[in-house]
Fold this protein.
Amino acid sequence: MSTATPPPVPETVADVAVDQAAKADVVGSARKKAKSAAGNAARAITSPWASVFAIVMAIAWTTPTMGLFVTSFREQKDIVTSGWWQALSTPVSLENYGAAFNGNADNGYPMSEFFVNSLVIAIPCVFLPLLLASLAAYAFAWIDFPFRNALFVAVFALQVVPLQIALLPLAKIFQDMGIGGSFWALWLSHSAFALPLAVYLLHNFMKEIPASLLEAARVDGAGHVRTFFQVLLPLITPALASFGIFQFLWVWNDLLVALTMLGGDLARAPMTMALTNLSGQWGDKWYLTSAGAFISIAVPVAVFLSLQRYFVRGLLAGGTKG
Amino acid sequence: MATVKFDNATRIYPGNDTPSVDKLNIDIQDGEFLVLVGPSGCGKSTSLRMLAGLEEVNGGKIWIGDRDVTDMSPKDRDVAMVFQNYALYPHMTVADNMGFALKIAGVDKSEIRSRVEEAAKILDLTQYLERKPKALSGGQRQRVAMGRAIVRSPQVFLMDEPLSNLDAKLRVQTRTQIASLQRRLGVTTVYVTHDQVEAMTMGDRIALLKDGILQQCASPREMYDKPVNVFVAGFIGSPAMNLVTVPVVDGGVKFGNHALPVDREALAKAGKTVIVGVRPEDVEVTSNQDGLAITVELVEELGADAYVYGTPADKSIELESGDGGIKPFIARVDGRQVPMKGETIYVHPSADHMHVFNKETGVRL
């Protein structure tokens, strides 16, 4: 996939101009034929070659996952002696899942013990930043206060700080506060790392809402709180849902922050910690790893499917005109 | 129901030196339909928003009834507003949209329902109550926006160009509906528009603004018959009034070669030239070459009568449009005796219906 050739680079400014003129020409004449550039684009996308390309991409991307999925149903000895594509000639069972989830001789860290921990960590880590960020975004978008723009830029600029840099100082601060190693340390750090992007994203979404809608709410007698909860929040559910999914995936799959903040405390450890132990000391317990991976995937998939119905386009349609 | 009073109300936007609304003084009677009109950027919408509480008042006061609302938040003013783009809540049904303000006010659910249904009946929206705004046509959305205001039975209705998003036919229809609805409900209404026809047809009184300054506030008839200055004269009326700069002579003014008698005292306040205004329907076309020579450039035939568009044969004669631009001379003529294109006609105002303005100040003499 990485061998795709880059587009030819025009060498001089004149070249660029000629290039653009040529392009404009092409577009112009195409427009005469096809009426609109949008129609052209739609046609280009639906061309058979594009379809072939898309299918090839899809196969290339999903094949390894498919392999892992098949592997997760095979016995350990079959996995090491034959490829997953030979699965039909060997027995398949759900035993690996049982072993990964409930533990066996190879697996001293049954995932079931960590499953609830993961939920306890992930759920507040999604709702806390969503609540804080949407409140902050509302203020940044619709309330006039001193240094608003400077503050907003500052919040956004925080994104450039990699969390790895903040990790140890943060752990130290939590230790000093007396919440080191607790769920609070995880909740707060995950929320903090999520906030800049969340504020920025939700702010942009809120700004899209016509000002007259908020003014109408004000004239109707709504204060900030009611305007926020009854007028704005329902209209930004697509943004809330998409950010919620990303944040959930991120926290659910996180190992680094959990490891740092909990310090290897297994009583509170998330499933990812169990998952890393599954492959065994020599990385040879494939039958456990593959099954564990799919156990771990199950929850994010469920979250995604359940939130999918909120990805509605055109929520704002009909409210305002012009 | 209440009176509304702008008392030297002033709004200066941050970063601006000149006020967007400058010392506005209007007294609006209880139950009156007042139209704020003017070209874009004249401060009419700002004035309305000041009354709504959406815009800060930097100077002066605003009264609703006997309450000083200058620094009150919108929700305490008991006003309802209809927005230009309707500003309906897209995620609520028509009924919820209309009942939102009542819900906030803590009105009983069954009471809300009955008031919403009553308003829906008036506006012919009953069958759409459970729909979302996106399933409605433009005209229906506009009516929902009206309904949202009616349901509250507020002290004052505020309408910010509510018809500008409708097509021409619907606009004329809705225009009369709003006017008659307002008379029936008897709620004091302030209505903003840039369309002088809307202003003339709907308002009990019209307030014409320019650059944030009130030019004239009077009944449509008075605005039409006695414009206080050149700007008002040029703005009100369609087609617009002809404004011709003419020399002052002894006892009157010279309109082409036609002498028009003008009151001596009035002329005493003017310089060597004055602006004479004459509406197209008050132009008399003469057969004996008496008056101003106009070269006909275009004739608009409307059946019963026709409008003649032309320029003065004498190119040195200035025609003004009230706001500084140049425009053709327009005369209404009998539809059965229409001059040909390129022909020269002689015109002068009928003596009873002419307006004389100071050339320098533009003020009516």
